Amino acid sequence: MATELADGVWRFELRGVSAYLVDDDVPTLVDAGTPWDEAAIREGFADAGVDVADVGRVLLTHYDIDHVGTLAALTPELDATVYTGAFDAAVLRGERSPPLRNHKGALQRLAGLFTTPPDLEVKAVADGERLGSFTAYHTPGHTPGHVAYVSEELGVALLGDLVSESDGALEPSEWLISYDTDRVLDSVRDLAERAPPFDVACVGHGEPLTSGGSEALGALAERI
């Protein structure tokens, strides 16, 4: 199922996680659900009136089974470059493995048994790099290569799992699912300070905020 949050910004409601489709300079897929979400993502594309083959860019906030899971299944139709942070890009390309010494890394190793790398070009995105109307912000903590993307032009922030939504407010990524919660808090404060204002806050878990997104992020930064 797809819901239009703002003009040209669609949310795909999946198995406990959300992916997004943004009509930017090219149709842009943001995150890609679990390996078991292919049917739901295809339904979302149909609801949005966009063909998978029309996607010109994939923005990944990070590497996790519930954010990269359907990429391999979509690969036969996708002709798009995938962008994410350097550490997470190396994991997605199979060049390195998540560290077993970290509890979240160990969880990722286990989940990797169910994750097929996509046959797509995967590029590391730098902090401050522009991709269409979005600027990439390195926001490590949940994963070492976590990235948030903010479009001042569209008034949209793609926050991934840096934060989640609960009762209309934003909350930082929790210890169990994060590499380093101190870095999560630092990243929240840094993004709140550096990012331009935005209305729509697209999160991986919980309900996206369709208004007051930057204010909600700023409120969280002040209370952590």
How many β-strands, per DSSP?
14
Instruction: Write the H/E string, N to C.
Output: EEEEHEHHEHHEEEEEEEHEH
How much helical structure, as a percent, in the residues? 25-40%
Largest sheet entry: 7 strands, mixed
Structural class: alpha/beta
Amount of beta strand: 25-35%
Overall geometry comes to globular
Summed up, the helix count is: 7
Radius of gyration: 16 Å
The N- and C-terminal alpha carbons lie at a distance of 34 Å
Kindly describe this structure.
The chain is an alpha/beta fold and 224 residues long. Helix content is 27%, strand content 26%. The strands form three sheets. It has a seven-stranded mixed sheet with strand order 1-2-3-4-5-6-7. The chain has a five-stranded mixed sheet with strand order 8-9-10-11-14, with no helix packed on it. The termini are far apart. The mean pLDDT is 97.
Describe the protein's topology:
Blueprint: E1 2-6, E2 9-13, E3 18-23, E4 27-30, H1 38-48, E5 57-59, H2 65-68, H3 71-74, E6 81-84, H4 86-92, H5 103-111, E7 122-124, E8 130-131, E9 134-138, E10 147-151, E11 156-160, E12 163-166, E13 169-172, H6 181-194, E14 200-203, H7 213-223
Parallel strand pairs: 4-5, 5-6, 6-7, 11-14
Antiparallel strand pairs: 1-2, 2-3, 3-4, 8-9, 9-10, 10-11, 12-13
